[in-house]
Design brief:
This protein has 190 residues and is an alpha+beta fold. It has helices spanning 2-17, 20-43, 96-109, 115-128, 165-174, 181-187, and strands at residues 48-57, 60-69, 84-90, 137-142, 148-152, 155-160. Strands 1-2-3-4-5-6 form a six-stranded antiparallel sheet. The chain is globular and about 35 Å long. Residues 1-32 have low confidence and may be disordered.
Length: 190
């Protein structure tokens, strides 16, 4: 009995010594994951996660990613033809405008979109993408020919109506010439 009380006291003291941001992350992450999964399942009822991986830049983990699809109608070679959701769980604090700029840079590297589209898409993303931190989960929902919708921790935050945006945006992760080929392989469950 005494050992259990000591263990509980030590755990309590450890929790008190943790930074408040970590406590917030520990308290909100499970609820965030449940809220996001519920949002994805509502919009894509037959979807499940087919693959997950981490994205690192200069050795620093920026986020963990998971790809949700309906396995019965998804083909990795023609992914643009099927609805999907990409979930990003951030590991760092990043500005939304920087995420938008990096997204446009990746589209340019892939040779997708015109200068006019890059400008319009960049402005639209800056309006939708929030600043993120370790408690943030962003999810993009793609359906062919429709607006691309975005969610933060399971709550809708905006959409980009140009139907050409979705394939360009998700190509960042799913195009065969992505700058993150290992992450693409992991997302596609290969």
């Amino acid at each position: 009995m005494r050992f259990g009380v000591r263990r509980a006291l030590l755990l309590w003291l450890l929790l008190l010594s943790l930074p408040s941001a970590l406590l917030i992350m520990l308290a909100t992450t499970p609820r965030t994951a449940v809220a996001n999964a519920a949002a994805v399942k509502q919009l894509l009822p037959e979807a499940s996660v087919i693959g997950s991986g981490s994205f690192r830049w200069l050795g620093l983990k920026l986020y963990d990613a998971s790809l949700w699809v309906d396995r019965s109608n998804f083909n990795p070679d023609t992914w643009q033809r099927a609805p999907l959701a990409l979930e990003l769980n951030y590991a760092r604090t990043l500005e939304g405008k920087r995420i938008a700029e990096a997204s446009i840079d990746e589209m340019k590297k892939l040779g997708i979109g015109s200068a006019a589209q890059h400008k319009a898409w960049g402005e639209a993303m800056r309006q939708v993408f929030p600043d993120v931190d370790k408690t943030t989960q962003l999810t993009g929902l793609y359906a062919p020919g429709q607006a691309t919708r975005f969610f933060r921790n399971g709550v809708a935050i905006g959409e980009i109506t140009d139907p050409e945006f979705g394939p360009a945006f998700f190509a960042i992760w799913l195009h065969p010439k992505t700058t993150a080929p290992k992450l693409r392989t992991a997302l596609l469950g290969r």
